[in-house]
Amino acid sequence: MRTAQNIKSEAKSYSVRFALLLLLLFAFAILDLYFGSVKIPLSDILTTVFSSQSDSSPWSSIIFNFRIPKLITAVLAGAALSVSGLQMQTVFRNPLAGPYVLGISAGASLGVAIVILTFSSAISFTYMNLLGNWTIVLIAWMGAGLVLLVIFVVSLRVKDIMTILILGILLGSATSAIVSILQFFSNESMLKTYVIWTLGSLGGVTRSQLNVLFPAVGLGLVLVILSGKILNALMLGENYAKSLGLNIRNARLLVFLSTSLLAGSITAFCGPIGFIGIAVPHITKMIFKTADHRILIWGCIIVGSLIMIISDIISQLPGYQTVLPINSVTALIGIPIVLYLIIKNQRISIWA
Question: Rounded to two decimals, what is the model's pTM?
Answer without folding.
Answer: 0.87
